Amino acid sequence: MSTNDGNRRFQIFREWVIFLAGHSKWANIKHRKAKVDAQRGRLFTKLGKEILVAARRGGDPDANPLLKTAIARAREANMPMDNINRLIAKATGELEGVNYEEVTYEGYAAGGVAVLLVTVTDNRNRTAPEIRHLFSRHGGSLGEAGCVAWMFDRKGLITLSKESLSVDPEELMLLLIEEGAEDVREEEDSIEVVTAPDDLDKIKEFLSAQNIKYSTAEVTMVPNSTISVTDKNTAEKVLNLMDALEDHDDTQQVYANFDIPDEVLQELGE
Asked: Per the confidence metrics, is the pTM higher than 0.85?
């Protein structure tokens, strides 16, 4: 591996592996990965599938929280409203379109790391063997339904940049707890707010009322414990699997419970 390739991979891995202190920062990771993704059309495809699946439960975002969230994510990526409205029309039968379904896969990466993968596909008979191949190729194994889902909790996660705050972080953290946030965590450059899924919109509205901007806000899956991966070869297999799963065309979300120390990441970047 060349020095340049090593440094590039190290930077990518840094974006993937922010699971320290036993919690997930996946919202932040997704946000940064999307920003550097040159294949904008591919991002729109993923967001479009998310809207199609959500809209099948109802085309009114005010009555369908999943659709409301999917639309918000699409708008954050600057997807035009015309595109969004066409997708909703297809999902509700007003326009002819492909029938997508959401399929969740569970398995283990190298070192026993739990992996939870959410896909949206128009052909699960094609997607399943492709996902199984990716697990096997990178030293993991695809498991049965339910084998790792119990290791994750569904939570709302909001990330605030400290640079954008006009209020005292400690005071804000207390206010958020009083408002109903389950947990507020202070990191070096940011504040993470963990909520019950149903309370996410309430906390967002509170922040907006205080003129406080947030970097990301979404319902995600947070691991309830992490596995420390200290072996360099194992860590590389885990990260390569995560990268391969994320790059699969049908993938919507990837969650995992690994914790790779900074010194191991640095070795991988050399």
From this structure: no
